[in-house]
Amino acid sequence: MAKACFVFPLLSGSGGHTILPKQFPDIFERSSMNWFSIIEGIIIGAVGGAGAGISIWLLNLWREGRIEKRDRERVYKWLLNNSGNSSGYKFRSTRAIASHTNLTLESVDYICSTDEEIHLSTGERDDVWELKSIVRNSERE
């Protein structure tokens, strides 16, 4: 078996040659490890860690999408049942929506501002919302 040659910086001679004392046995002769198996282990660990990280990221992305979809449906259903001509309120405030759907004000504001079916009032108050389908139906009447 060929011996591996190690460079010990503290044991280097001034002439550029390396001093390998006999009291430092070759560690690779005592174990079944070699440089290839060490590099292989590092690569396997890195690929496995990257795969786990990507899996967790994708799972979290899916989970956040499901939560946002659920919250959008809650806001839409509440607005459908509690705004328009039948309820007496054409527009509903962010605070009222948040209070009845048990969502935060920021969450309701984000959902209402990004949902295509929910319309922001352009009147006196800027924090009130209505459904576009209700706007279309009231325009027809």
How is this structure best described in words?
The chain has a domain at 72-141: Winged helix-like DNA-binding domain superfamily/Winged helix DNA-binding domain (Arc Repressor Mutant, subunit A, Orthogonal Bundle). The protein has 141 residues and is mainly alpha-helical. The mean pLDDT is 79. It has a three-stranded antiparallel sheet with strand order 1-3-2. The chain has helices at residues 27-30, 35-82, 94-101, 105-114, 132-140; strands spanning 92-93, 118-120, 128-131.
Summarize, please.
By secondary structure, the protein is mainly α. It contains five helices and three strands, in the order ααβααββα.
Poorly predicted runs: none
Total DSSP E strands:
3
Rg (C-alpha, Å): 34 Å
Helix share, percent: 55-70%
| Strand coverage percent | 5-15%
| Count of helical regions | 5
The CATH architecture category of the domain at 72-141 equals Orthogonal Bundle
What's the CATH topology name of the domain at 72-141?
Answer: Arc Repressor Mutant, subunit A
